[in-house]
Amino acid sequence: MKIFPAFASILLACIITFSIASAQSNNFKSDRHRPQYHFSPNEHWMNDPNGMVYYNGTYHLFFQHYPEKTIWGPMHWGHATSRDLVNWTQQPIALFPDSLGWIFSGSAVIDYKNTSGFGKDNKPAMVAIFTHHNDSLEKLGGNNHQYQSLAYSNDEGKTWTKYEGNPVLKNPGIQDFRDPKVFWYEKGNKWIMTLATKDRITFYSSPDLKTWEKESDVGAGFGGHGGVWECPDLIEMKYGVTSKWVLLVSINPGGPNGGSVTQYFVGDFDGKNFTPDDTLTRWMDYGPDNYAGVTWSNTGSRKILIGWMSNWLYANKVPTERWRSAMTIPRQLSLERVNGKPALTQRPVGELAKLERKRSSLTAFTVNRKFDLPSSIKKGLNKIVINTDNSKSFSFVLSNTREQKVIVGYDKAKDEFYIDRTFSGPRGFSDEFFSRAVAPRLAKTRMMTMTLFTDQASVELFADDGSTVMTAVYFPDEVFKNITLEGDGLKVRGLTVVEY
Question: What is the pLDDT of residues 360-371, one digit of tens each?
């Protein structure tokens, strides 16, 4: 049944037009599969977000970058900046490989107390803490080819100086010894480094970012161990009238839907030990394409995360030409009570509202078989919000004229969400890409809300106020401009389509 053409009638709840904020430069619009409101590099390879820090009104996003090819290679730190988390400007490369090795993942902080002595003219330094990966040593064998180093900037990230005393943390003989995420622990008057060490997380402390002492490690015997642990992040978050600590750990492989994924643990941290509340394995995002996500530092109580929108199963093979991979939309994290326990929830940052061009809404109608969304959807860039009474299965079918499609839906019998990209585009680049990913419905509430964000070649699902999240990319021959809501007797309480 087709109701949307009658939007001009009494069914039309509202249409609001905004001036659009262009999230990517015009020369990107002709790039096949190029996202239009997700960050992607101007050219060549990108993977993990690194060194994310907020300072003087600017969000800095550094990222793993190989500026010569569209496949993984000698790692640099690429750099982009934004004043609003929506419009990004790519800056010159921040950190280049040197005699100590390639520049792997890490973090950045603002050293307000000048504990490192890197500050200048009474202004704090921006300090990057990163992993040096020595490819030559790795090829010789042994376990001493990764170690932690420093670089600092006295001009808000424009130029960088590597510390002459690098490395500041040598490898004790662990093959995978990387991805330092550092924060200031006020209660102990010290810096804490959360470091991925093969199959667990090790905590180090320092008074000055230069000298580090091991505090403890955690992770042996619980959590997902299908692959190496990477890109950790330890975050203190409000929980009711108190606070808890959340430990993010990316793992590759070992995801519930194959390949790369991020797990998390909730517990307490006393400056030395992280003690999890339980040993359950919780996944931050059940989709196949959200990996290595970490939060911006220096944002106060607001915790904002961004992830790499890809999967190591096929990241080097996807059919893009000039550039390779994108980041997720930034997400604000909260710790909320879900089914009686603290759980991590994710919601798209409010700043995305500035992208809105037109908003169309309907209330209280029934879907009998199918319901076509507005024909005015031209670019495939949308936000779609549906509210139902959780009594029926339903799905959104994103399709094009080539009979290619992605299906995003909810299966009532199994009480799970899914993204099916089995028929999303031409095959050939990866046998593991064309699959159906599923996620349990974690919030057992009577009413259900599902929000979808679609770009040229990606969809992000946020269900039940962000308690269940899925992210997936796809590569059709042409943009999915047709969207149909399908269900049998589905009672829709509200449906909103926002065009970007």
Answer: 999 999 999 999
